Amino acid sequence: MLLAQCHCGQISVTATHKPSTVTECNCSICGRFGARWAYYKQIEVTVKTTGSETHTYRWGDEDIDFHHCPNCGCMTHYTGTGKQSEQDRVAINTRMCNPQDMIDITVRHFDGADTWQYLD
Ligand SMILES: [Zn+2]
């Protein structure tokens, strides 16, 4: 199992299994967030909130929503908005996980800024 939690604990995201790799993307938004993504299908992921719902941010082609805790501001995951390729994808920001749980997982580098290919 994988558990990701925002800083204040209002948002918890769990997945059925740990990822084999996580992805750092250098695009304009992932770079700013400093996110490390683990990718899942929607059915593999459960999001729980105590208090209010997540805040979301959309940009560009608007095919994903970035979810933020309304209290502490941490960006916990993104979900597809129903368009195209990202439709069934949930990406968990593993920066919200216990670092000890992630220590043995390979980090891959994705060139989302330019070539849209993995660099490693
Ligand atoms: Zn929070």
Automatic annotation (TrEMBL):
Belongs to the Gfa family. It comes from Reinekea marina. SUPFAM superfamilies: Mss4-like (SSF51316). Residues 2-117 form the CENP-V/GFA domain. It comes from the Bacteria. It holds the Pfam family GFA. Transmembrane segments: none annotated. Keywords: Metal-binding, Zinc. The keyword Cell inner membrane does not apply. The keyword Zinc applies. This is GFA family protein.
